[in-house]
Structure formats: C-alpha cells, structure tokens
UniProtKB/TrEMBL annotation, chains A, B, C:
The keyword Amino-acid biosynthesis applies. Homotrimer. This is N-succinylornithine carbamoyltransferase. Keywords: Amino-acid biosynthesis, Arginine biosynthesis, Transferase.
Length: 318, 318, 318
C-alpha cells in the first residue's frame, strides 16, 4: 500500500480485514517491523480515538511516534498557494510538509473540512497538499470528505458481528445535531460499504442527501421508519446539507435513534464513530443497551490503523 | 492493588514505602514488568510534577504511555448523567472512559475539584464516574478531595528524613493564597499521616477547618505559633473554607511561613507539594533554606508513582 | 561538552560537524548510548523543527524523552527574583528548574526573547536562570539572543554544499517582515560563521544593525545588491532594530530575496531557518527553486541535535 486516504488505496478489502483480525488476536506479532522508522501524526483538529489508537498501533509495530498538535504547538499555517504571507499565517503548509518529509518515514494527518467553502472541502484543499508535496506515504486520519481508518474499523466490526449466510441489511441513518457537521464519516461509510457484501440503505431528511459521488447507486430513503425496517446494522451519524452546503434545513420528524425505533429492525446492532451527543443523536438507552457495538467499534480503530501501518511498512521495506 | 484513589487502597503502608525506597535505589529493576501494557494518563487539569513523574515511572517499568490533555486535544466533556447534549459538550465522560477501557490496561486521571458545587466535589463527581465505568484499574493523579500519589511521596520523604527513636511531630499548616484553592492535598495528607507513626497537628485560621471526615480525631489548633512549637516537620498548604464552601474568610494574622517562625520548632523540615507561591505561602528564605526538603519531596513523586504502578501490574499479571 | 547554549561551548567545531555528518550516515550507530537516561524538552514557545528534530535525535540515542509545553500543560511561570507571587503567576521558574533537576539527566529549553525589555533579553533573563539553577547539562533550543542548534545545522549544511578549494562568500541578509522579530538566529549565525572558514558579510537596512557583540569585525553593508554580489551562500532572515529595541524603522527599498537578485551571485545557495513568510521574506520562486537548500538545512537539525546530545552524554557517562 503506497498511501491510505480512501478505499481505492486498498488492494483487497477482505484481505486487509482478515489481517486486522489477525492483529487483534496477536497485536505484538510484528513488534519489530517498524524499528528505526518514524511516523508523524499531525493533528490540525481535535482527536481522542484516532490519536490514541494510532499511537498504540504504531507502538505495537515498533515505530517511533512523533505527535504534533500543529496549531497549538507549532505555527499558524497558510494554505493558499502563492499567498503573500503578510498576515496572521506564519508557515506555509507546503514548507511544513517538506520538513515532515525530512523527519518522517510516514506522515499521517487529520484535516477536517472547514465547512465554509464547498469547493475547498470537496477538493480536499489541505489533504491534497499533503498528497502533492509529501515524498513519503500519506495516511488520512480524517480529511474533509473521508475518514477511511474509521471506515475500515467499521468493516472489521461488521465482519465480526455477522455470521449468517446472507447479506446483512446495513442502514446509514442521519441523526440530529445542533451544529453543521462535516460529511466525511457518512461519505466514507457509504463508499466502503459499497465494497462490502452488504445491502446498504441510506436514510436522511429531505435536503440532507450526501454527495452523489460517494453514494452512487445506493438507495436513499427519506422515511427513517421505512429504511430501518429489518435492518441488521444501523450506523448513526449526523451531517449538514451538502447541496446547500453546511446549511441545516429544518427537520420536522424526530430522527434521534431510540429503542422504540429498534423494534422494527432485525435486532439491529447499533454503530457510531464517536464522539456522540447523547439524547440528541441517539438515546441513552440505545447507547447503553445491548444492541450497541459502539465501543467494540472504537477498539477496532487500533487494528484498523495497525493493519494499514503494517501494509505501508511492507511497501517501505520492499 | 486493584486501584489507587485513596489510602484505603493500600494494603500495607510500610511495605509500599519500603518498596518505593527500593525502587529509588534501583529504578530500572523492573524494567520489563509493564512490557506490552499501556497506561493512559488523562489530564483534565494542569500538571508538571504529576505529569513528568508518572511518565518516568511508567517508562521505568517498560509501560507504553499515552498522555492525553483531554480538554485541549480531544473533546469538551459532559459530566451530567442523562444530559441532553444539545449544548457545548461534545462527548460524555462515560463514553470517553469506555473507550479508554478499550485502549488502556491502566487508566490514571487528574480531575480537580470544580470549587463551585460542594456536593459535586465531596461526591467526587468526575472520579466516581471513572470508578464506576472503568473496567481496568484506576489511579488518581489528584481528584476533588484527595491527592494520594502526593501523600505517598510525602510519607516516603518523612521516612527518609526521620531516624530518631520517637514519633515526629508533624504539623500541617494552612498558608495564605489569593484564590480559593481545593482541599485535596490537605485532606489527603491528613488521611495518610493518620496511618503513619507520627503525631499530627493541623493548624489553620478559624473558618478554615478541613472536612471532619478526613481529619477525624486530629488535633486542630487555630494559633499557628502554638501549633508549630517543637515541630519536626511542617507541611505548608493553602485551602479555602470547607464549611462556607470555597469562600475565603478574612484572616488577620500573617500565616506565611518564615524563618522567624521556624525558630520555635525542632529545626523542622519544611514540605510543600508545589507549585508554591513564593512570599505568599512561604518566604524565599524558607524555600531556599536548608530546612526545605521540598525538592526531595518532588523527586519522590517518581518512586511513589512507580511503586503504585508496580503493585497494579502485580495484580494485572496475577 | 558540559552544556550547549552558544558556540563557545563547542570545543572543536570541525570535529562536531564531522561527528554530525557521521551520524547522518548512520543515525542509529549509538542507539544504546542514552539508555536509562532522560532528556526534558521544555517549550516556553512554539516549535516545529526544534521539537521534532530533538525528539528524533533523542530517540536515536535511546534517551527517554519528556516533552513539556510549559505554559499550556503546567503552570504560569514567574521569572522575577524575589517576587511576591500574589498575581497571575503560579510557579517560580527556579522551582520548576529544581524539579526538572530531580527528573532529568539533561534539560533542554526554548525561551524566546520577550521583545519588551532590551535589558531582559540581552541578559537572557530566562536562560540565565536555567544556567544558574540547573544541576544537569542545559541545552538551548533557542533563547533570547542565540539559536545554537540551528547554527550548528547551518554549519553542517554549508560544509555539505561546499567542495571548492577557496573560502565561500556567505551573506547574511535581512529580509522584510510584518512584526518585530527577535535577533537570535541572526546573532547566532554571525557568531558561528566567524568560527568557520568563510568570508561573512552581513547586509541590512540602516537602523537594523545587529548587536556588535555578535558581529564584531564582520563587514556590514547597507546596500543589499552590493552585498549579494558573488555570494556563494545567502542566509535570509528578518530581525527588528537592536539599537531602537524591537522597533521597525521604515525601509524604502525592497529587501525580499528574488530570483532577479540571485543573478549577481555565484549561483548562491539560499538558506533560511524556517518558518518563512513566503513572498515577504523571499519569493515563491526562490523557495521552490533549485538554489534553495532550506529543506536540507531543516533535515540537518536532527544531526545537529544528535551530535550535541551525544557529546553531552559522553560527559555524563565519563
């Protein structure tokens, strides 16, 4: 694997899921693989799970880890090409990347959508600079439009929770929120599920359809009850409008996931990438109930990251 | 040891002091004991000594260390049970703890008193959630009402500095400050000293008596001069009113510890947990004088933490 | 080497450059040298290159690394001797240093000029407290008046890029900026270049002459074009006025380095310590052009740090 920023960087999805599950069985089986190599974890945004799971995964592989909270610990970054830097920005992202090239064997970066310019976000204005200027493999720790390490963990979690001899019905359901939230997790989940042997349905209110480039031929249903019927897995996630970018069109029905809504499902397992706003996105009873596999999902972030780092190291060592 | 949040978690105080002193002699004697295990150090508040000494102690034991400055690096936490999270808080502490359960073999947390609600603080509104939801051993790096790793370091330091064949007189003296400060260090010191073979006296102005649950039968004297007489050890620390919670009733006498006040003592050794406000809590001449064993006390924070981590690992490895 | 805060701490400059280049060939050649020892990296200011290169260098030597963002993670520091600490400051720098003495075998500190009091900055009001109170070797990660790890990296980089049998002409040129910037990099480069076998010229506008204590007998030319003529190396850096401390006297000519200005040079290599304000200090075309050795310079920060840490360890182990 040469880089990891979307599902298209994965050669064989079933193989990497299998590898991740082997790592879960024995996390220290490749504890020397990263010896003498350095991974830089660059955070332009907050992180709990991604931060800790990436650090654990790297340590399990014997990698040196450099963690940088770029905004707080280093310099205010300029992202515009050709900028005359006579304002608040102190260092151009290009130069920061070129320096990371000198210091790291792998660069991993978290760069959320700004939610101001649709064009900037759709074009991955920050991640694209890493892809362009990095001379070492780049790993996304969530970018403007995708969160692939989360999606791989989601695949692993579904794999672990599905033994039946038929395709599970997987429903990605929009959930309420109080602020305009990015589309990355929703997009990415849609994209990865289309590579899995599942029946994917997306449900969201009118005005909240995701970017068609990610959902392609996936069925989108605007009636949550209808969509949840017979679901085997429900993935709960908020996002703001894509068409009217970052807007929050009024929603009249209550889209919060509750135990009541689980009744029509096939005892669906409930998933969420976390952090979750309890009693807004889903109820306490769902979060703390036996249908939730949310913490298992969080744990699998370690093995998702470790499988990816391991495949990147294969490339570097080859 | 299954957890470490107060003196009652210690089975045998003299044994753990002895162990800490052995570690001080040879800090790397158990350098493989934590191999393949991970300790999460979660800071909800500032820290210098606790941060660094815990990191050193963990490294000396071969533990992987994850340090998280929760507020700045991760998400704004919700602490209220059943909250409808439609405000500023992004992640419930319960969920953060459940995720830490997935990532860590030991969780250590610093969660100061909020100093707003007496009830919340007395009930350890944050630490109690860790004790309730953590599925791995929990270590307090100072909570609302106690600072046990500090108190153990204090015990070690007194042990090192007392060879005489009689009980030392130990005086915990209130000191001036400009802000309402928590009771944790005072409470904890009182609690631990009652388990040590010492004569403990507490002195503070009227209105500043500590919570009786921590001081029990300890003599409290409101005249500092009288209390300090013949002291062998003086522990200097400010706290705000407990009865009139977090208030700062006027104090007319000057309670700052000075060399003049040391004259009536038995060449008392002076202790303080740091950070200290010089020339407010105690004078420069005391801080920099030969009676101070304050930096030795700071050093012993390493061995206090390491002895505790080591006993927790014994439990995990058994 | 007993400490490293200026070029005068280096016994033999050519030897340490040679050592750094050997380390560059084989960074893990002394991977056990620091085993069981701890270096504390204390940041009172922002850092990208210094932070990461110091961490890498320390890891390459097997040192334990403690990184402390003092202001954000620990306590607000008091720097004034004898202060009555009844204001915003919570811990005296003296006490923080004494605690670091207990925890670290080496203390490295970044403490920029405050740019408010010339006297404080010239007297190194912060670094001097480390030099006075530290009981272990002190390394400067940039102080008020010097940036020696940068200067050593600069020497290494010039060495790598000069094979001719004559002294290179090295020009330190002032560059425009929008804020009053410290003199440390300029001072330090001047000081170190005087120990190298080069012809050093400094060029800056009237009113921007550096402190004579650093530039001594170096030729200072106020006409940039004249200074750059036949240059083999150009070091670009802004600084504010030293005489009228931290002022920014008006400059009429355009001092930004451009390709046009490189024409009169001997195909000069361009250097900068980074971060750089593109199209203010130098143009995009220079930064991204083939004359720039700026990223190589950034990489050499690792080997500069590692050579210094290694020599300090020699002293500790002797």
């Amino acid at each position: 694997m040469k880089k990891f920023t979307s599902v298209s960087d994965v050669e064989n999805l079933q193989e990497i899921i299998k590898k991740a599950l082997q790592i879960k069985e024995n996390p220290l089986s490749e504890s020397e693989k990263g010896k003498g190599k350095t991974i830089g974890l660059v955070f332009l945004n907050s992180s709990l799970r991604t931060r800790l799971s990436s650090q654990i995964a790297a340590q399990n592989l014997g990698l040196n880890v450099l963690t940088l909270n770029a905004a707080q610990e280093a310099w205010n970054l300029e992202f515009a090409d050709g900028a005359v830097m006579n304002g608040d920005t102190v260092e151009h992202i290009k130069d920061a990347i070129e320096v990371l090239n000198q210091y790291c064997d792998i660069i991993a970066v978290r760069c959320f959508a700004g939610m101001k310019s649709k064009e900037d976000d759709v074009n991955e204005s920050i991640l694209s600079q890493f892809e362009q200027h990095a001379k070492v493999p780049v790993i996304s720790l969530e970018s403007a439009t995708r969160h692939p390490l989360q999606s791989l963990a989601d695949c692993i979690t579904i794999k672990e929770n599905w033994q039946e001899n038929r395709k599970p019905k997987v429903v990605l359901t929009w959930a309420p929120h109080i602020k305009p939230i990015a589309h990355a997790v929703g997009n990415s989940f849609a994209e990865w599920m289309q590579e899995m042997d599942v029946d994917l349905v997306i449900t969201n209110p009118e005005g909240y359809d995701l970017d068609k480039n990610f959902t392609k031929n996936v069925k989108v249903i605007h009636d949550q009850d209808e969509a949840l019927k017979d679901a085997d897995f429900i993935y709960v996630k908020n996002w703001s409008s894509f068409d009217d970018y970052a807007a929050m069109p009024e929603v009249k029905e209550n889209w919060m996931l509750t135990n009541e809504k689980l009744k029509n499902t096939n005892q669906a397992k409930v998933m969420h990438c976390l952090p979750v706003r309890r009693n807004v996105e889903l109820s306490d009873e769902v979060m703390d109930g036996e249908n939730s596999i949310i913490y298992q999902q969080a744990k699998n972030r370690i093995f998702s990251a470790q499988a990816v780092f391991s495949e990147i190291l294969d490339e570097l060592n080859s």
